[in-house]
Amino acid sequence: MLFKKDQPFPMMETTVRLCKFIGLWHDTDLGKVCWQAAFTLASLTFWYIVPEICFVTRQDRELTIRLKGMIEILAMSIFVVRIGAHVLHRGTLQRCFWDVQETLGQFVDSDHVEVQDMLEHLVKSASFITKGYTTALLCNASLYGDIPALIAIGQYLMGMDIQTFPPTILEADYVLFDHQSNILVWLPVLLVSIATQYSMLTSLAANECLNWNLLHHVSCLFKMVKFEIAHLGECSTSDEFKKRLAKIVTIHDAAYRNASCLETILSPVMFILYCTFVTKVCAMMFLVTIVDDFFIIVMMLFVTSYQMFLVFSFSMLGTELTEASSAISEAIYQCGWTERTPSEQKLLMFMQMRSQRRVAITVWKFFALGRASFSVAIKTTFQYFTIMRQLYEIEV
Question: For the whole model, what pTM was predicted?
Answer without folding.
Answer: 0.94
